[in-house]
Amino acid sequence: MRLKRIMLRYFPPGIGLEYIQGGCTKTKEIDLFDLTSSTDIEELAFAVAKGEPLITPNIHHQLVDSLRRLQKKIFSTTIHRFYRHKTLKTHLLPLTNVAFDKFGKKCLTGSYDRTCKVWDIETGEEVHTLQGHKNVVYAVAFNNPSGDKILTGSFDKTARLWSYETGECKQTFSGHSGEVVAVQFDPQKQLIATASMDTTARLYNSATGSL
Fold this sequence. Notes:
Blueprint: E1 2-9, E2 14-21, E3 24-31, H1 41-50, H2 60-74, E4 95-100, E5 106-111, E6 116-120, E7 126-130, E8 137-142, E9 149-154, E10 159-163, E11 169-173, E12 180-185, E13 191-196, E14 201-205
Antiparallel strand pairs: 1-2, 2-3, 4-5, 5-6, 6-7, 8-9, 9-10, 10-11, 12-13, 13-14
């Protein structure tokens, strides 16, 4: 067996050991329920290593560093303050979902008013209102990392593909017999996936709209 890495588990406290055995990658978890802010990490590391053959002397320092990071993270008293950046208000009815592009410069909002709105995060200005769905727009997504296309899913049982630049609908994906509640682009941008209340998921060709 060969240890690959030590992973931290914040709740409940513990660590994960990822290792190679027989050519396969496996993991095991070690619970640290008694970890407190006053726990002596050196003593804890020796106790963990004593019963674990994956923890050899040459990686003892790595275990100590990992346990210290875990302790610091869990029992940190640092107060994180968050401030409102912008308030986006133009939808007529409640919102259903939001999505950012990869760089955090664009934002999508879906709404019960049957529209998806595209926003410029820096200015807070509305870039487009995507209209065409005949019911609630429940799911929204960018085709990250490029962010030049937008996908929406609706309670009208369809999904739609839009151009970010023009706000024009490029494709409508039909076939579900229930509300579309999740949409996603594949990493190669050739397929789009939809999930529906009809208990099915579908894969469509993003260029042709066919299954």
